[in-house]
TrEMBL record:
PROSITE patterns: HTH_LYSR (PS50931). The lineage of its organism: Bacteria, Pseudomonadati, Pseudomonadota, Alphaproteobacteria, Acetobacterales. Keywords: DNA-binding, Transcription, Transcription regulation. This is LysR family transcriptional regulator. One of its GO terms (molecular function) is DNA-binding transcription factor activity. It comes from Rhodopila globiformis. It holds the Pfam family HTH_1. The keyword Transcription applies.
Amino acid sequence: MKPMPTLRQLRYLVAVVERRHFGRAAEACLVSQSTLSAAIQELEDLLGAPLLERSRRLVVPTALGQDIATRAQALLKGAEDLVDAALAARDPFTGPLHVGVIPTIGPFMLPQAMPALRLAFPQMKFYLREDQSARLVEQLHAGGLDAVVLALPYPMEDVETIEFARDRFWVACPPGHRLCKASAVRPADMALEDLLLLEDGHCLRDHALSACELEGARRNVAFQGTSLHTLAQMVANGLGVTLLPEMALDAGILRGLDLSVVPLDGETPYRRIGLAWRRSSGRKETFHRVTAVLRNAMTKGPAPQAHQA
């Protein structure tokens, strides 16, 4: 039988390649540096080739070492999913769940959703990480996260998703603005305005442009904000108008600002909110149940009234 590397050896190699340092890798793996070095030496002897170039100050993977470390990450994630599947078969609603959430959803959804999740799953511990969609999806594939809450559609491979809410866009503008006179703002009307949107990297920017049918009119984007709160302040300063999701309005993002809001009209004046997880995950029953709780928690009360600050 062909000799095979152990998961322990592969985990140690990945840790060294990621950190470029034996000491820090050993600390991350909770072992001594000598134990980690010996395991990697055993792996090199097994494969018959050097995986790392060692010097006093620096550790650099060889081309083979980098390739094996990349392949090992997928193997280690598969082994972890295998264990998760076994644990989930015993009790899918206990233990830790690491969930990522994007910044245009987290601050507005979590105060409403987390009490419902804690009540529904008292034996689960939810660990949350807020970041932009691209980095969250990267961490999802790498195994650092179990699931991600984000706005759909978003380009992802080897994942499953369930939509649990539709978050309508509202136009925020200063009182007396021409758009405030309408009961709903047509997408064509937005093309004539200085539209304030989030900077590149925030998927809400693309979803807002799509909702008001301005994909080809990015020249109308006058300024870029770093957060929805910043956009609201810029509108209050008379720099233009913006699109805000309903969950942000429900959370009081315009509190203290002299602004009006009017619903956006059109075929799809909303963004879709969903939960995504790796297709290989063994916790699918957990995610389906979590999504059901989120859907119930996100059921809206009365929508914001047009022309009210």
